[in-house]
Design brief:
By secondary structure, the chain is α+β, with helices and mostly antiparallel strands. It is built from 4 helices and 9 strands.
Length: about 150
Amino acid sequence: MSNAIATNKQAFRDYAVLETLEAGIELKGSEVKSLREGKINLSDSFARIEEGQAFLYNTHISPYAQASYLNVDSTRSRRLLLHKKEIKRLDMELAQKGLTLVPLKMYFNSKGFAKLELALCKGKKSYDHREDIKRREVDRKIRQTMKDRNRR
């Protein structure tokens, strides 16, 4: 896996990640060129399975300046490339209450293909957010005491 073009930091804050998987994405030529420039926004994006196919919604890929009339709608739905078995399994898991498919990051693999890291997530409740904050504070205090100990 190579460097990420875009990451969805909001997803880690709002959801508990249960499982991740890699998916290809069907793009037009001008969209790929925009991706290479890093002009993508994954926040508020989600995926759905409809009629045996997976689709990505609300992903904003800015129009490529030199493409002129060949540009497409920047927030159009895009088909995700997954195996049939994966799609069927995800569809059954999404039928459970409260599970969502959320994109975590987009990157180019070693062959130059655009890939999307999808996650099967469950929405966090307010008490989960408070737990995360407490855990961060405890970790910060532990690091500080270890740092002070090592100075002596």
